[in-house]
Every structure is written in C-alpha cells, then in structure tokens.
Specification:
It contains 12 helices and 12 strands. The chain is an alpha/beta fold and 314 residues long. The protein has a 7-stranded parallel beta sheet, with helices on both faces. A 5-stranded parallel beta sheet has the order 2-1-3-4-5.
Length: 314
C-alpha cells in the first residue's frame, strides 16, 4: 500500500483521454477514472496532483477546495469556460491546453453540417420518419453561391474557413482588433445581413454568452441563414434559435457541442415538428487520429508536469 500511496496520482474524467494509453506511457503514475468532479471520492481528490478534464466539467473555487494537492490541470481541447482560471492561478495550479489537434476534425464536421443543412438533409430525413415525402420542400440553392461568416478566429475558426473556402462564394471573419490582416473580415454588425451561413467558433466568455439570440435572429431573418455552432453551446440562445428555425426565420441549425447537461434540448411535451436541424453529442473532434494525438499529448504533458514538480515518472 505504501508504494501506491507514494506514486503520483493522476485523475481523469471519461472522454478526456484514454486511461489505457496513459497507463502505458506513465507506468509509475497511479491513474484513476472518475465520473464527475462532484461525485469524486474525497480521499482520491485529496491526493490527486494532476487532473485531466474535458468540456462539460466545472472546476470552480468551491470545488477546488476538495483537491488540495492539485498542481496541474490538463485540458485536451480549447475551452476554458468550465475552469475558474483565476482561482487556479491563485492556488498555483498550472493549466495546460491544446486546441490545435482537433481543429481540422471540427472543421470537417462544419463542412458536413453546411452541406447537410444547405441540401436540407436533416429536414428530409425527419419527414420521412413521419411518413411524409417532402422532395419539393428540399429544393435548395448551391453552396457555391453562399457567403459564410466565421465568428471566432482561433484554431477552429481558421480551420473552418480553410475547409469551407473551396466550396462557397465568399468567407469573412467577424472583425476584431486582434484579427490578422491576412484574414478576410467584415464588421460584426454587418454580417447578419450579409451572410447566408454563420459558423460560430467562439469561446464562452461573458461577452459571447447567448450572443446569437433574438437580436441577431431578427437582424438576420431576411436571409434565412444557416447557423452552425462548433464553439460552445452557451454562445447561442438555443430556445430562441429553435423557435426561429420552427418559424422559418432560420434556414437550418447545426449544434455539435451538446453535453449531457444540456439535455433535453426542449421539453418532452413541446418537441418540435420536422426541422432542418442537425444535433450531435460534441463529436467534432471524435476522430481516431485526433484522439490518438491528444492522448499522446496528455501523457507527455503529465510526465513533464510531474517531473517539473520533482516527481519521478518514467
């Protein structure tokens, strides 16, 4: 037992990394999997030095008190909205993240969503399951004539622009002072009346929370645009977007970053009729090559983090 207690302890939530891979790369590290931060065994939390998280888990100042030995948080992705970064910094906890490996895979999903919504595939699929043949209602313009607005110019936003550019007429990023001059841009207030499709790849900050809601939908409704969210679901007012879709003010809606906590998207007694809606359980980065790259990065990052704190990790 003394050998186990002396080993550095790494705790991981499901989906953040493959524990089999981590055990292979970190043989002298004790690795434990927990379902959530709220249900973690307190004795386990009290000994953990490294915590590997994914989106959908929140580590705030109150929860942090249960992890007194925590020195490193590893986030195999981009979003920090679940982390109280200031509280972690105050405690001397280092946060590691790596958004780059997933960007191309998320952009691939965005391209699939654009093609699917533009051709009204989700709507046609939904109506067939209701015994309706809606070929005429699926008539659609080609995406080659579409203008696409990209909201967010991080690795994911830029990858989406690269993936979509060969297939659409024009792409513009929402202008910001930090946007490189090499990227095509338009003022954000112009995009709702300019674009035929919007790709939302924004972090969930106070500025961006529910940013795509009634005001945006009212301004954009004349174009009946497609709205594709590859960032955080909280950047959308989901109820308002679903109502706009049902009222034909949106031409299509694609939501990838849906977590278990976001369900149900609508009450059971208010389930919508057939919609041009694509909803997936945060699968944008769920590609074998991406998972393998992130697992290797998590293992290398954990090994380096523990070595830097004086722990012996082979």
């Amino acid at each position: 037992m003394s050998g186990i207690s002396a080993a550095p302890l790494l705790v991981i939530v499901p989906g953040a990394a493959d524990p089999v891979v981590l055990r292979r790369h970190l043989p002298s590290c004790a690795i434990r999997v927990i379902e959530s931060l709220d249900t973690a065994d307190l004795n386990l939390a009290a000994r953990a030095e490294v915590l590997v998280l994914r989106s959908g888990h929140r580590l705030d100042a109150e929860r942090l008190t249960r992890w007194p030995k925590l020195r490193h948080v590893i986030r195999a992705g981009s979003g920090l909205d679940g982390l109280d970064v200031e509280a972690l910094a105050a405690r001397g906890v280092t946060v590691h993240r790596n958004p780059a490996p997933a960007a191309d895979a998320v952009a691939e999903w965005a391209l699939a969503a654009l093609l699917g919504l533009a051709r009204r595939i989700p709507y046609g699929h939904a109506t067939l399951f209701r015994g309706q043949h809606t070929k005429q209602q699926c008539l659609a313009p080609p995406i080659s004539r579409m203008r696409v607005a990209i909201w967010g110019a991080g690795p994911v936003g830029r990858a989406c622009a690269t993936a979509l550019a060969p297939y659409v007429d024009e792409i513009a990023f929402a202008a910001r002072p930090s946007l490189p001059d090499t990227l095509p841009a338009r003022p954000g207030h112009e995009l709702p009346t300019w674009a035929d499709a919007h790709v939302v790849a924004l972090p969930l900050t106070g500025e961006n929370r529910r940013r795509f809601g009634p005001e945006f939908l009212t301004t954009a409704c004349e174009r009946r645009p497609l709205l594709i969210c590859v960032g955080r679901l909280g950047t959308l007012d989901v109820d308002a977007c679903l109502r706009a879709l049902a009222d034909d003010r949106l031409g299509g809606l694609a939501l990838d970053p849906i977590e278990q906590a976001d369900l149900p998207l609508w009450p059971a007694d208010a389930a919508p009729g057939p919609l041009n809606l694509l909803a997936t359980p945060h699968i944008g980065a769920q590609r074998h090559d991406v998972r393998e790259a992130l697992d290797r990065w998590v293992a290398a990052t954990a090994a380096g983090a523990l070595t830097s704190t004086g722990r012996t990790v082979r």
